[in-house]
Each structure stands twice: as C-alpha cells, then as structure tokens.
UniProtKB/TrEMBL annotation, chain A:
Name by which UniProt lists this protein: ATP-binding cassette domain-containing protein
Topology in membrane: Peripheral membrane protein
Protein's cellular compartments: Cell inner membrane
The organism's place on the tree of life at top rank: Bacteria
One Pfam family in the UniProt entry: oligo_HPY
Keywords: ATP-binding, Cell membrane, Membrane, Nucleotide-binding, Transport
SMART domains named in the record: AAA (SM00382)
GO molecular function list: ATP binding; ATP hydrolysis activity
PANTHER family in UniProt: DIPEPTIDE TRANSPORT ATP-BINDING PROTEIN DPPD, OLIGOPEPTIDE TRANSPORT ATP-BINDING PROTEIN APPD
Domain ABC transporter: start-end pairs: 7-254
Length: 288, 359
C-alpha cells in the first residue's frame, strides 16, 4: 500500500547575512495511517518540517526535496493557488497555544465554519450543524455556547479542543500536531490527547505528532523519529524507544527521571559535533 | 477533577443570557466613559480659563482703548466682573459657557458663539473631507505595504509618507494653487465658493457641500467641491502619511501572530487572511489613530486655511490671538479641546464595541 505522505531528502533553508542557514537538512520518511512522533530539541527542524509539508515556509525561506508526495501526487512547491486547495482540506495542523492560534476578535463558530465552508461549499446552516457536531465530537458539553463564544471566554484545554474540531471539520487525511499540549495544564493534557487520538484513528488519518516530550511520544505514537540539527538521527517503533541506540536519543532518555530505575543524579546531555552529520541508524523501508 | 468545561468562566448559562451580560458590561463601561468625559471637560475649561487670565494682556484696556480715562477704565473693569476673586470669576464663566455664552468678541463685535457657529462648520467640512481622503487612501496603502513588506510597493508607500511628513503644507498649497488653479485652471481658487454662488445656498449645517446637496443646487455643489478639493487633498495627504505608517506597523504586528498561520492552514486565500483576520484585529488601534488625526486637522490646519483663505476656526483663533481678543481665543480653545475629548471618548466607545475582550 502506498503511503499517505512520502518525503525524501527534504531541505528547508533561509538566506542570512552570514550565508545560508539550513533549518532542515535532508529529512526522509513515509507516513501511513499511523501516529508518527517527531521528537527533537528546539531548533532541530521538527516544526519547520511540518510547515514545509503544508507549504507554509514564507519567502525568503526555500524548500527543496527529491520527493514530496501526498497520495502519490507531488506537492513540492505547488503554486499557491493549488496548495490552498490542499491546505485545510487534506493536510491540516494544530498548533501549540490556543491563546494565540485562535483569532481573538472572531467567534469560535465563525472560525470553525469558515474553513469548512471554503472546502465543502456547504451552506451556512449545514456548516453550523457540522461545527456543532465537531464541537460535540471533541467532547465540549455545551456546543451552542462555545459556538457563540470568543476565544478569551474559554479555557486553554477547551481552546485546544476547539482547534482540533476546527482542523478536522473538513476531513483532512493528515493532521500535523505541533506541540499540541505543551501550553496546556498537565491535568487536561491527556484528555486532549485522547480526544485527538480517537478522532484521528476513527477517521483513519495519518498523524504527525511533533513534540519535545520523549515520554509522551513514546506512549502516544506508533513510530518515532528523533531529529537533531535538521536531520533524522534515529527512527524506531515507539515501544522500542528504550532500546534506542543513537547516543543523542540515549542522552535524552538518560536525562529523564524514571520511577522504575531511580538514580541519585540525572545525566546531563553532552552534545557532540559528529551527530550533526551522522547517518540514520535504522534503515528506512525498501525503495528509498 | 472538575470537567474542563466548568472551568471556563460564566458556566453554562444560555447564550442569550450571556449576550445580555456582555451588553450590560458594555453599557456600564459606557456610563463610566461619559462620567470621565464630564470631568475632563470641566478640567479643560479650568485650564483654558486660567491660561486666559494669566496672559499678560489687559482685557479691559482692549475694550476701552488706550485713551480712556481712569473712571471709564474702572467702570469697564467692574462691568466685566474682573474685580471679583478668581474662583468666582471662573464660576461665572463656567455658568455662562454652560449656557453657550463665551462673551463677545472684540475684533468682530459678534458674540463668540455666533462667530464659532460660522467658522467651525467650514473647518469641520475641510477636516472631514481631508480625513476621509486620508483614511480611504492611507489604510489600504498601509495594509498593502505590510502585506508586501520590503517589496517595491512598500518602498513607494514609505517615500509617499515621508514626503507627506516633511513637506511644508503651505508650500504644497501654494504650488498646488499655482499648478491646478493658476496654470491648468482645473479647480476653484482660494475661498470656499466662487463669487456667483456666495450666499446663494440656504444655510442648514453651515457645511456648504451638504447644504448645496440639501437644496439640490448642483452648480453650487460643483463649485464648492472645486474649491475644497485641493485643500482637503493636502490635509488628506498629510493624514495619509501618518495613517498609512501606523496601519503598516499595526498590520505587521498582527501578520506575525499565530492565528494568521491558523488561517493559512485552513486554506484561506491571502486576501481573506489579511482583510478578514489580521485587519479586523487592527481596527481598535486604527480607530484611535484616525480619531486623533481628525482632531489634529480640526485644530491644526491654520496654515492651510490661510493659504486657501478658508474662513475656518484655525484662522479665526489666530487672528483673535494676534488681536488680544481673549474671549474669542478661549471660546475657540474650549471648542477644539471639546472636539479632542469627544473624539477620544467616541473612539473609546467604538473600541469597546469592536473588541470583544474589552467589555
């Protein structure tokens, strides 16, 4: 079966005064109907990878790749007009903090129906019904109230569920979740994750879960990519995470406290220059 | 643990009740604003009164003239109430002002209120048209400059604004008159109307453009328009410079916001991202900028009024000041101050209506 999304040697670069800065330096992976975790520290290129897939790298940033295909169809550097038809409709994204990612002067209902109407061409009444259904699907108890509310009138956890409802309303095939729970209270984090997980699985979507939280990704995803300095340094199934071999992944894991293996002093990650250009330790699937 | 729904503010009241509560909060806010308006106006009156009294001009001398006898001088002083203590003078003055009486202007011989009623509409007409031009051109220019940041259109907008800031308006006015009136003959010359239409339009609002429309006199309208268009364009250009720069910087701030990325992720067209999402968020500060720019045109167009022989408020106050006509100066100052305060309050109220977070 062909993958939903296929990336080969994706590069994103920005010209700067002191030469070209490469934010992403040759990332390759395939995404099926699965939950793929992308983990890395700040500046490792994980968010930029997500934005490149959505065609949201603004000039003067440049995106190149040997292959970037959605359902076998190239989406690399499509004209903006064609890209807009994919964005939201087939690939969508949930961002970090609903406080900033929702428009403060527009009611939530309008924000949800806007994208849905654009892609489905439905009437206002149908879009409204769809929005209320979606709000119900993300377990908001009083959808009517939230539909008419402004973003500052709801909590962060609700805001993120609204974002999920909004992004899933046009039924995309791929959802990129860029640190979707980092801005949330720990108490509502799992709830939001479970809602997202259920919706994504029910619809048979592909999920790219971008996070810096190794444990979270380990629990939540099927497969994990570890990124460092714009490259994938290791790829492995989530349940094998504790068997990671790359020294960076090992360093990250060792710096986390573990209940089952208490240590007196946690290790500090020692970065090495050789990781920047290290080869991937797990072979990619055939036909790369 | 409580369900997250419960943590969200006003609980699960029906939407209509919540909208009612929002409106109630807005109304209370407006009441507070109106109270502060009254206090500000009182303070304004006090300050202008004190400035008027400490000015080294003897108001009595201005009335009776240089060659009056001491007895005449004393009588006039008594009649003007200047023997009273200052606080009583102020109360009397405030009482008169509340009744719309600013006293009599020495230079024109009319009641100041009457003079203001004559000159203010001329200024309002000019400033309103100028602001309209400034907004209609400046806002889109600022938005486009921000959306195309660093491109040629941004550079052009910058140069246009810079010229607007730095050119002396009287020079632009003279050159404009020379070119469009003197050489090309496209527009009417100085003044509000051509001589044949002078006094022909029945006065309703005092703004001749509107009055001529009301009376259906198209010839007068066209004539008035050809007189007002150049000074209004110059004032408009001046406020365009300011408005477009402010619009651009407000827009740049919003365009880098996260919700703009959200809008793009949804697949919206760039036009909808800019006008539907970012622009709606700059309306609040923009309204304030436009109100202040309008207020400054109301007071600050003296040079334009002089160059174009425009019988407006700026010219009136300047002449009164040079003649030591303090009643007229005070009246004009209070009027301008009131305009500032009222415009400020109006933008404050608009702000509450435009921003759902404010109420």
């Amino acid at each position: 079966m062909s993958p939903l999304l296929s990336l080969r040697n994706l590069r994103v670069s920005f010209p700067t005064r002191s030469g070209t800065f490469d934010a992403v330096r040759g990332v390759s992976f395939d995404l099926g109907r699965e939950r793929l975790g992308v983990v890395g520290e700040s500046g490792s290129g994980k968010s930029m990878t997500g934005r490149a897939i959505l065609g949201l790298v603004r000039p003067p940033g440049r995106v190149s790749a040997d292959r970037m295909e959605l359902d076998g169809e190239s989406i690399l550097n499509l004209p903006e007009r064609r890209m807009r038809q994919l964005r939201g409709a087939r690939i969508s994204m949930v961002m970090q903090d609903p406080k900033f990612s929702l428009n403060p002067v527009m009611t939530i209902g309008r924000q949800i129906t806007e994208g849905y109407r654009l892609h489905s061409g439905q009437s206002a009444a149908a879009a409204r019904q769809k929005a209320l259904d979606m709000l119900e699907a993300v377990q908001i108890r009083d959808p009517e109230r939230v539909f008419n509310a402004y973003p500052h009138e709801i909590s962060g956890g609700m805001g993120q569920r609204v974002m999920i409802a909004m992004m899933l309303a046009p039924d995309p095939e791929i959802l990129i979740a860029d640190e979707p729970t980092s801005a949330l209270d720990v108490s509502v984090r799992n709830e939001v994750l479970n809602i997202m997980d259920k919706l994504v699985r029910d619809r048979g979507m592909g999920l790219i879960f971008i996070s810096h939280d190794l444990n979270l990704v380990g629990q939540f995803c099927d497969r994990v990519l570890i990124m460092y300095a714009g490259r994938v340094v290791e790829e492995l199934p989530a349940r094998e995470l504790h068997n990671a071999r790359h020294p960076y992944t090992r360093g990250l894991l060792d710096s986390l406290p573990r209940l089952d293996r208490p240590v007196g002093r946690l290790a500090v990650l020692q970065r090495q220059d050789s990781w920047r250009d290290a080869e991937i330790t797990t072979p990619l699937p055939e036909g790369l | 643990m409580a369900h997250p729904d419960m943590m969200a503010g006003p609980g699960a009241r029906p939407p209509s009740a919540r909208r009612g509560a929002r409106l109630g909060r807005q109304l209370r806010g407006v009441a507070g604003v109106l109270l502060s308006l009254a206090l500000t106006l009182l303070g304004l009156l006090l300050v202008t009164f004190i400035i008027g009294r400490v000015m080294p001009i003897d108001p009595v001398l201005k009335v009776v003239g240089e060659r009056a006898t001491q007895a005449q001088y004393d009588a006039a002083r008594l009649a003007m109430g200047l023997d009273q203590p200052l606080w009583r003078q102020f109360l009397t003055y405030a009482g008169q002002v509340l009744h719309g009486d600013f006293g009599r202007s020495i230079s024109t011989g009319h009641a100041v209120t009457e003079d203001l009623r004559r000159v203010f509409p001329a200024t309002v007409e000019l400033a309103t048209l100028g602001t309209l031009i400034g907004v209609c051109a400046g806002v889109p220019l600022g938005v486009i400059a921000a959306a195309r940041r660093g491109r040629w259109i941004d550079q052009i907008a910058r140069v246009v604004a810079l010229i607007g800031y730095s050119m002396p308006i009287f020079w632009l006015g003279l050159m404009g008159l020379l070119l469009f009136y003197g050489i090309l003959g496209w527009i009417g010359g100085p003044g509000r109307q051509g001589i044949i239409y002078d006094g022909m339009v029945p006065e309703v609002t005092g703004m001749i453009l509107i009055d001529s429309l009301l009376s259906g006199d198209w010839g007068a309208f066209r004539d008035t328009f050809s007189h007002i268009i150049l000074p209004a364009s110059l004032l408009g250009y001046f406020s365009l410079a300011y408005i477009s720069r402010m619009t651009r910087s407000f827009m740049l701030e919003q365009l880098s916001a996260e919700y703009i990325t959200t809008a793009r992720v949804k697949g919206l067209s760039e036009r909808r991202v800019i006008w539907g999402h970012a622009f709606r968020n700059i309306l609040v500060p923009l309204v304030t900028v436009i109100a202040l720019s309008f207020a400054s045109l109301l007071e600050g167009s003296v040079l334009t009024e002089i160059v174009f022989s425009w019988p407006g408020l700026g010219q009136y106050i300047t002449k009164a000041l040079l003649a030591g006509d303090m009643n007229a100066v005070l009246g004009g100052t209070v009027l301008i101050g009131t305009c500032f305060v009222v415009l400020n309050i109006a933008s404050d109220i608009l702000y509450r209506l435009l921003d759902p977070r404010a109420a």
